[in-house]
Amino acid sequence: MKVVILCGGLGTRLREETQIKPKPLVTIGEKPILWHIMQLYSYFGFNDFVLALGYKGEMIKQYFLNYHFLESDFNINLANGEIKHLNKHQKKWKIDLVDTEKDTLTGGRLRRLRSYLGNDTFMLTYGDGVSNVNIQQLLEFHRSHGKLATITAVHPVARFGEMQLEKNKVLDFKEKPQTQQGWINGGFFIFESGVFDYLQDDKTILEQSPLENLAHDQQLMAYPHEGFWYCMDTIRDVQMLESLWAMGSAPWNFFSKKTDVIDQELA
User: Fold this and answer.
1) How many of the other CB atoms lie within 10 Å of CB of 42?
2) In-domain check, residue 253
3) Is residue 106's pLDDT more than 70?
4) What CATH number corresponds to the domain at position 118?
5) How far is CA 186 from the centre of its chain?
6) Residue 153 burial (CB < 10 Å; 0-12/13-18/19+)?
7) Which pLDDT score, from 0 to 100, does residue 160 have?
8) Burial code of 243-267, b = ≥16 C-beta within 10 A, e = fewer?
9) β-bridge mates for residue 172, sequence order
10) Does residue 122 lie within any of the structural domains?
């Protein structure tokens, strides 16, 4: 199953960093937040990624083109240009890096990826949010209800889209109001290909008419996640995530934890 990550936004509220790099390359613990997100999906066995690039997308391409050199020691013979990796770091990741243009909006970016996704179920999230959501349980929930779309509902830091829920069914979706129930759009979506019928053009904002209309058509279900979720939106958010990583207490870093600790957190 492919995992779409939206990587094209301008990141204007994080200008301290995004003047020189795209937001998904802002680092936490010397690794881009995009790497952290991909690690989460990889932990649960999902290693086939489609990155929707836009603003400074060439830097994300360069990062992955040079990944083995950045992550490994190597020997280079300047006489003939031969390069030998000394301790090559292996990843199972397969990555489609797709330029969806700088000014395209979130729904438009997804619409441009249709030929890469075909008619299969796929996952989607944002390139700036980390969580300890159990992706396997999220997928099981999606398959259980038979609707076109699943959205992960999380508790704020209250600045994002709010949903009105009834027995996990999304009755209403509004982007960035005052919170009423305490649930917001946390990303970590799962979609069927029928969602493309709700996307009009490059100016379509996924979080507005597509999700609103899916909710109206009773095709949008919510997976409530009570655990950790954090969106890196400002320099204070970067510092918060950095501090969690530095202390060794990053809830999204499953790879460094013992199995029994992870099982307890995900229970």
Assistant:
1) 19
2) no
3) yes
4) 3.90.550.10
5) 10
6) buried
7) 52
8) ebbeeeebbbbbeebeeeebeeeee
9) 164
10) yes
Flag whether pLDDT at 267 surpasses 60: no
Q: Which residues contact 42 (CB under 8 A, 6 or more apart)?
A: 91, 92, 93
Q: Which amino acid is at 91?
A: K
Question: Per the structure, how many domains does the chain have?
Answer: 1
Query: Can you give the residue range of the structural domain that contains 121?
Result: 2-248
DSSP per-residue codes, the chain:
-EEEEEE----GGGHHHHTTS-GGG-EETTEEHHHHHHHHHHHTT--EEEEEE-TTHHHHHHHHHTHHHHHS-EEEETTTTEEEESSPPP---EEEEEE--TT--HHHHHHHTHHHHTTS-EEEEETTEEE---HHHHHHHHHHH--SEEEEEE--SS-S-EEEEETTEEEEEESS---SSS-EE---EEE-GGGGGG--STT--TTTHHHHHHHHTT-EEEEE--S-EEE--SHHHHHHHHHHHHTT--TT-GGGS-HHHHHHHH-
pLDDT tens-digit readout, 111-127: 999 999 999 999 999 99
Output the pTM of the full model.
Answer: 0.85
Encoding tokens for residue 97? 């890096």
Query: What is the bridge-based pairing of β-strands 169-174 and 189-191?
Result: unpaired
Nearest to 33 by CA among 16, 13, 17: 17
CA dist 241 to 8, 32, 128, 152, Å? 21, 12, 11, 20
Are the C-beta atoms of residues 28 and 14 closer than 8 Å to each other?
no
Classify residue 158: in a domain, yes or no. Answer: yes
79-95: average pLDDT:
84
- Res. 265: pLDDT tops 70: no
Domain presence at residue 171: yes
